[in-house]
Design a protein that fits this description.
It is built from 8 helices and 8 strands; from the N terminus they run βαβαααβαβαβββαβα. The protein has 218 residues and is of the alpha/beta class. The chain binds adenosine monophosphate.
Length: 218
């Protein structure tokens, strides 16, 4: 059983790296942002509660976030473990999490703010299937069309200059203290997130003493 948390500013590759790790080690990838986006797209009551907050780049209230995380983990579909992405984002969420779960490692993806701007403003999402693209690193074959389903590519509502500036402020102000809490328990591995995704994945696995990328299955 492996239980990890991945932390990093927007655009640092949390989703991509989590998925790569989850696929090879049969972990359940739990992205709090994806859960909220699903609710917004599906027009649920929860979606209506969080839509504006998310679009402004602000953080959703702790009670709501904690109940979403608790409900998700209570499904107990994670026989081999999980990787939580985008949570905890402030000290209170970190305390809540540590009270309920012991964690094997916190992966901190380190990316300078200038690179965050460059990456995030180039990010696109398929409106239909949710596939991620990036006009710098992962362009679709046909402009503005999803390679998988042909859906139209859109910009995430919170990927604007203003929302990004708010998120970066929040991140540095609130999330860094979370890293301090985890660091005191000595299970943070910090990885330089500027490299290509395979290199970053290998660096994560080396730091966590896991088999390298591409070595898990024949
Ligand atoms: P993400 O995809 O992780 O960037 O999350 C998108 C948005 O969902 C954030 O900008 C917040 O509005 C909300 N969100 C995700 N995770 C959290 C969290 N742990 N605490 C509060 N809000 C969150």
């Amino acid at each position: 059983m492996r239980k990890y948390v991945v932390m990093g500013v927007q655009g640092s590759g949390k989703g991509t790296q989590s998925q790569m790790l989850a696929a090879d080690f049969d972990l359940v990838h739990i992205s709090v942002g994806d859960i909220f986006r699903w609710h917004v797209q599906s027009h649920t009551k929860l979606g209506a509660q969080v839509r504006r907050i998310m679009a402004a780049g602000d953080l959703v209230g702790d009670d709501l976030v904690e109940s979403v995380v608790r409900d998700r983990l209570q499904q107990h579909d994670w026989n081999y473990g999980f990787i939580v992405d985008g949570f905890p984002r402030n000290p209170r969420q970190a305390e809540f999490f540590l009270e309920s779960y012991d964690i094997d490692g916190v992966i901190h993806l380190d990316l300078p703010d200038e690179e965050v701007h460059r990456r995030v403003l180039a990010r696109r999402l398929c409106r239909n299937c949710g596939m991620d693209y990036n006009l710098i690193a992962h362009r679709p074959q046909e402009e503005n069309r999803c390679d998988v389903c042909g859906g139209v590519l859109v910009t995430r509502e919170d990927d604007t200059e203003e929302a990004l500036a708010a998120r970066l402020r929040d991140y540095h102000g609130k999330t860094n203290p979370v890293l301090d809490i985890f660091q005191r328990k000595e299970f943070v591995v910090t990885v330089d997130a500027r490299a290509d995704k395979g290199t970053v994945q290998n660096a994560i696995r080396k730091a966590l003493r896991l088999p390298g990328y591409g070595q898990v299955r024949a």
